[in-house]
Amino acid sequence: MSTVLESLAAQHRPMLLCYARTLLRGDEHQAEDIVQECFLTAQRRFDDFREGTDFGRWLRGIARHKIQERQRQATRRPVVVDSRVIEGLDEVFALFDSSATTTEPWRDRLLRLLESCLSKLPAGMRDVMDGVYRRGLTLGQAAQQFESTPAAIAQRVSRARGLIRECVQRQQTEDA
Questions:
Q1: Boundary of a domain, candidates 23, 56, 76
Q2: Neighbours of 163 (CB within 10 A)
Q3: Are residues 94 and 156 in the same domain?
Q4: Which residues of the chain have a pLDDT value below 70?
Q5: Tens digits of residue pLDDT in 46-67
Q6: How far is CA 5 from the centre of its chain?
Q7: Which of 81, 86, 109, 115 would give a disulfide with 104, using CB separation of 3.0 to 4.6 Å?
Q8: Where does residue 25 rank: exposed (0-12), middle (13-18), buried (19+ CB within 10 A)?
Q9: 82: exposed, middle or buried (Cβ count in 10 Å: 0-12, 13-18, 19+)
Q10: How far separated are the first and last CA of the chain, in Å rounded?
Q11: What radius of gyration, in Å, describes the C-alpha atoms of the chain?
Q12: Domain assignment of residue 52, given as a range
């Protein structure tokens, strides 16, 4: 970083951090990340900065762009928010909390057991589970795809989770 840029960065860092924190609704960690990314971009693009223009404004523009970019990326990543799905995941993962009797890595064992139990489900349930868990469909989207209602899909998911839970428990006792 050039001496001029270092001096300007040090001078504008508090303002930029406050600006980023405000746009990110107080998220200190994300604001710090944005400021760091902003200064890296400013370093790469310092030749684009026109002398005589407001450096703080230029930095805020970079920061604003970085924040908007993060928000767009976050909306592209589906996040599981359906409480029934989360409860089902918690139930399945809880089965592995106390099972450290094997040398097989936890993740590998989990995947092996889940795949085995999923393959034993009736085809309709397996397809719905694949849609909801692997492809990230919401219950509404799954209902459209499988020509059903969200309530019926939720019931299929719940039944499938119960069958998977029983299957995993059965296999755990057989492995022990």
A1: 76
A2: 17
A3: yes
A4: 1-2, 76-107, 175-176
A5: 878 777 777 888 888 899 999 8
A6: 35
A7: 109
A8: exposed
A9: middle
A10: 59
A11: 25
A12: 3-76
> How many other CB atoms are there within 10 angstroms of residue 154's CB atom?
19
DSSP string covering 24-79: TTT-HHHHHHHHHHHHHHHHHTGGGSPTTS-HHHHHHHHHHHHHHHHHHHHHHS--
Token pair of 94 as six digits: 């809880």
Q: What is the CATH number of the domain that holds 107?
A: 1.20.140.160
97 shares its domain with 168:
yes
As a whole number of angstroms, the distance between CA 145 and CA 54 comes to 53
Same domain, 21 and 53: yes
Task: From residue 58, give the alpha-carbon distance in Å to each of 31, 51, 89, 101, 141.
Answer: 17, 11, 45, 58, 42
Q: Which residue has the tokens 């407001």?
A: 54
| pLDDT at residue 27, as a whole number | 82
